[in-house]
Design a protein that fits this description.
The complex is a heterodimer of chains A (about 110) and B (about 110). Chain A is about 0% helix and about 50% strand. By secondary structure, chain A is mainly beta. Chain B has strands spanning about 5, 10-15, 20, 25, 30-40, 45-50, 60, 70-75, 85-90, 100, 105-110. Chain B has about 110 residues and is mainly beta. Chain B is globular and about 40 Å long. Helix content of chain B is about 0%, strand content about 40%. The chains are: A mainly beta (about 110), B mainly beta (about 110). Chains A and B meet through strand 4, strand 5, strand 9 and strand 10 of A and strand 6 and strand 10 of B.
Chain lengths: ~110, ~110
């Protein structure tokens, strides 16, 4: 595709529900990143994949957050037992080599 | 600690005035610095990176290692420059390439 694609664009869930957010990176991009952006803040790093390997998950805020990229392309960020503080925009970015990261439009998650 | 600080949440200038968006960083090592921009209803996109030393849309930024700053400048602001600007850094060697962002500065260019 032309760019990083994320779905859904908006997600509303009740507290306690599980959610899954999808990221389709630019074709051929080896590196994939997830960021969380709270209202009025800059994006904060969550996790990083190189192909299918999750090499850095130091930014995941709790064990309720889980990410995978089983075939080294599409990635899914799953949040279990959502809480209100999980409300944020979740951004996905991909890159190739030393090139800068390209961002998707993000998924705006609202937890009621 | 690795940190990026953008001291101004909002910067408001008139069209044609000079613009300087401030960015200071803290990083033990040799970082790479970026400016990303987000126009209304658009995705975050790269504006410039310090290693390329380019001028994009009239914007420039110089890395000052002594002051640990990477301020973004433009001599004459245009209305279409109104957007949210984020300064970010990435470690070089031994780093995954993850970006550390500042909180962002909203630039408002008035007619």
């Amino acid at each position: 595709g032309a760019g990083v694609s994320q779905s859904p664009r908006y997600k509303v869930a009740k507290r306690g529900q599980d959610v899954a957010l999808r990221c389709d990176p630019i074709s051929g991009h080896v590196s994939l990143f997830w960021y969380q952006q709270a209202l009025g803040q800059g994006p904060e790093f969550l996790t990083y994949f190189q192909n299918e390997a999750q090499l850095d998950k130091s930014g995941l805020p709790s064990d309720r957050f889980f990410a995978e990229r089983p075939e080294g392309s599409v990635s899914t960020l799953k949040i279990q037992r959502t809480q209100q503080e999980d409300s944020a925009v979740y951004l996905c970015a991909s890159s190739q080599g030393a090139q800068p990261q390209h961002f998707g439009d993000g998924t705006r998650l609202s937890i009621l | 600690a690795q940190r990026v600080t953008q001291p101004e949440k909002l910067l408001s200038v008139f069209k044609g005035a000079p613009v300087e968006l401030k960015c200071n960083y803290s990083y033990s090592g040799s970082p790479e610095l970026f400016w990303y921009v987000q126009y209304s209803r658009q995705r975050l996109q790269l504006l410039l990176r310090h290693i390329s030393r380019e001028s994009i849309k009239g914007f420039t930024a110089d890395l000052n290692k002594g002051e640990t700053s990477f301020h973004l400048k433009k001599p004459f602001a245009q209305e279409e420059d109104s957007a949210m600007y984020y300064c970010a850094l990435s470690g070089r060697s031994g780093n995954t390439g993850k970006l550390i962002f500042g909180q962002g500065t909203t630039l408002q260019v008035k007619p």
